[in-house]
Amino acid sequence: MAGSRRSTIARAHRLASRCVSIAIGMLVPGFLGYWLDGRLGSGPVLLLLGFAFGFTYGLWQLINLAKQREPSQPNNEQDAE
Predict the structure, then answer these.
(1) How many Cβ atoms are within 10 Å of 29's Cβ, its own excluded?
(2) What's the pLDDT tens digit per position in 11-64?
């Protein structure tokens, strides 16, 4: 029982840490673009590029995370029988 609980907690921690790193990866390029726009006086160009890059990166990471999670999901059709 303790071993299965620990593995569940470990999996939850791993997933939470992955989600936080994805969120940071989505936001940091935009804020970096905002800072560079302020330093270079280039308007919101780098801000928009940064958030576009961050969004693309985050979406790619979420798709990869979903692909990794698919095999471990239980088949609900078999459970219903």
Answers:
(1) 21
(2) 888 889 998 999 999 999 999 999 999 999 988 999 999 999 999 999 999 898
pLDDT, position 58: 93
Alpha-carbon distance of 57 to 64, in angstroms, equals 11
Tokens of 38: 């302020």
- pLDDT for the residue 15: 86
**What are the residues whose beta carbons fall under 8 Å from the beta carbon of 58, sequence distance 6 or more?**
22, 23, 25, 26
Task: Break the chain into its structural domains and give their ranges.
Answer: 2-70
**Which residues are CB-contacts of 36 (< 8 A; sequence separation ≥ 6)?**
42, 46, 50
For 18, other C-beta atoms within 10 Å of its C-beta total 15
